Amino acid sequence: MTADDRTPVPTSPSDTPEAARPGAAVADSAFLRACRREPVPHTPVWFMRQAGRSLPEYRRVREGIGMLDSCMRPDLVTEITLQPVRRHKVDAAIYFSDIVVPLKAIGIDLDIKPGVGPVVDRPFRTREDLKRLRPLEPDDVAYVTEAVGTLTDELGATPLIGFAGAPFTLASYLVEGGPSRNHEHTKAMMYGAPDLWTELLDRLAEITTAFLKVQIEAGASAVQLFDSWAGALAADDYRRSVLPASTKVFDAVADYGVPRIHFGVGTGELLGLMSEAGADVVGADWRVPLDEAARRIGPDKAVQGNLDPAVLFAPRPAVEAQARRVLDAARDLPGHIFNLGHGVLPDTDPDALTRLVEFVHEQTAR
Ligand code: 1CP
Which of 98, 225, 285, 286 is the best mutation target for the ligand 1 pocket, counting ligand atoms within 8 Å of the beta carbon and taking the most? Predict the structure, then answer.
């Protein structure tokens, strides 16, 4: 988008009808209206991991630049965040970063290895390790403030979603030292050293809160807390050992009035508890139909989801049939944001995503 595409900014706000101001147009967007469970012109759509490896233009700008380095460059962050908005016409942008960026910013020795994910040099196992977790200051992530500012200008009426990792999912990377199937060291700490565990999660809640506040204060219109691996937990353990820390994060950003989204994978049994943590919108993966997910989430919350990302590898009529199932399950819900049940898979055909956005918009136009 160029400056010429944007609505001219009037010199005096008092001359401006409410809806002509960029902030008002964002607030009135289909995405934010759906988050507030208000009537929408069409069901809004965005995709977790929409900015990333499925796009050739993403691979081009990332060539030769490490993932974490690219997260610290406002020019690249801005370009990559805008790419899926330009290409797919999604209803919201998600800030390009990673859940481990705030940990790197406070000096934790970690890297994001291509084809692997976040890898932590010295995994956290003892109380001594907590000393490496200092509070996050806004100056530690000045590049985030800068990039969010540029992005909100460039995006015009399209809302920007900020995000952070939830304490449990961040703890899993710190304690395991990298991606994990069984989260065995993490659970060993949770069951075997409950005081240490609580302190670790509380410190991570503070870091996550600080990171979300930076994004909101710079202009993000909504925030999503990714507890991607919470589905590995039994409900009782989630309630006792994880819910309090995630609740602290949601409470700490409540006063900003921006919608707060809570998402995890394989969390069918936890949807009620994840809703209790305080979000305004709860995301569901594809394992539970959206009407049933909404029942578990409870009243007064919007619902986000939940097409299986693997469906996008099927021929177009099958993708549309499965998207139709999601829309049918959401028909009576007063706040539905269409999304995948987890992130876009790297080998997804980008055209299939563009067509899916068009399909959802056409099918739900009111
Ligand atoms: O080299 C590369 O291109 C790295 C691949 C990559 C990308 C593009 C990683 C490594 N992270 C990201 C960006 C990213 N990460 C975004 C971008 C914005 C968007 O959605 O478009 C977001 C929201 C994340 C968040 C993230 N990182 C989550 C939560 C979401 C989810 O997918 O569950 C998690 C769990 C991570 C950790 C992570 N970072 C990268 C990978 C491959 C992983 C997962 C590793 C694992 O399986 O444990």
Answer: 98
Tell how far the Cα of 273 is from the centroid of ligand 1, in angstroms. 24
Global pTM value:
0.93
CB-based contacts of 174-178 (< 8 A; 24+ apart in sequence): 174/103, 174/108, 174/120, 174/123, 174/124, 174/129, 174/200, 174/204, 175/123, 175/124, 175/125, 175/200, 176/123, 177/119, 177/120, 177/121, 177/122, 177/123, 178/116, 178/117, 178/118, 178/119, 178/120
pLDDT of 247-275, one tens digit each? 999 999 999 999 999 999 999 999 999 99
Domain annotation for the chain: domains and CATH numbers: 18-364 (3.20.20.210)
Regions of the chain short of the pLDDT cut 50: 1-16, 18-19
Ligand 1 pocket, CB under 6 A: 48-53, 67, 94, 96, 98-99, 112, 114, 117-118, 163, 169, 179, 226, 228, 343
